[in-house]
Design brief:
The chain is α+β, with helices and mostly antiparallel strands. It contains 15 helices and 6 strands. Strands 1, 2, 3, 4, 5 and 6 form a 6-stranded mixed β-sheet that branches.
Length: 373
Amino acid sequence: MDLTAWAPQLRERLLHTIRAAMRAQGRSLSGGQGRGLTLGVDTAVAALADVAADPGHDLSEARSVFRRLGATEFHEGHRIDALRGVLSLGGREMWAYLSGQDLPPPALYALASTLFGLVDTLAGAAAEGYLREQEQHARDWDTTRRRLITLLVQVDPPSVTVLQAAADAARWPLPDTVAVLSVDSTDGGNLARAAGHGTIAAVINDATRMIVPAPSTPGRIAHLTAVLKGRRAALGPAVPLASARESYRLSGRALRVLPFGPGGGLVRCDERLFDLLTGWEPGLMDRYARTVLYALSALRDPELETLYAWLRAQGQVVPTAEALHAHPQTVRYRLRNIRRVAGELLDDPDARLSLQLALQHRFRAGEGRLLGS
């Protein structure tokens, strides 16, 4: 079917209708958008004429044009739904014009099939261009923000100029204070979006690292706790921006060495500093406890437990007995045996501290009955 005679009128009708629709969307039709509209209409009308005349016509050139138009839509900040709406409107307008012509029903049916098949093809090409550009932009955005996070947590702090340039590229206003979250996850983008409030994230060393600006803002930690429910996550301390690496190191170590329940959850490093200190290097506290307690190897477990309770009770017999659920006289008897073995260690404040830490580690590690609290 030859549509050449109708092409100029169809073109003008399409331009008029789509211009009105785009103005209603608040778009400017000057410059690039105006040229894109004209190019799209001209390409669609020409493609319809070509396919109507030859159903096997190669549409690769028309598809290429609409892929570029889809990419342009993304860069100009329009949603893909708006793009689909314009293309759908264009298809309906073309059909309204053609169905108003004096065509026999068989020819009209054939033309309808050709038209709506073409509209689907061009709409698919435009969506492909839009989504491809969106995906590339997302990769670029992730790279930009990963670079910023890497700068913040690297060993040598970057210069103010370098950090500001990276923050500008990532469109991230530099806050005064931050906290770094380490999460047992590789889904950084979704977690950052759920956290909101300017939180950015990147996967570094197989864990998601989230930079939380102004973490002391009321409600911020409660919101993060809800977002991270069911995940193993450690929140580093709030620090000045220049000290972000400190928060990063603490949260990362906490994720590796602190115990989590079966349901995961958020632990705060500031509330677990002693556990972090004693567990920083796996195996080190085991060796420390063995070394310190070597001098007491002649003592039995009940006597070691009594010594631990006595040290915790600051040398008071009655509180020691209460902690052990034992009679004070039993405690005194055991202490005499302990003093025969420990000797001057019990009179040296530093030695007493070492003994208490070593015994605490032993009991917490499950090598004896854990005392209350």
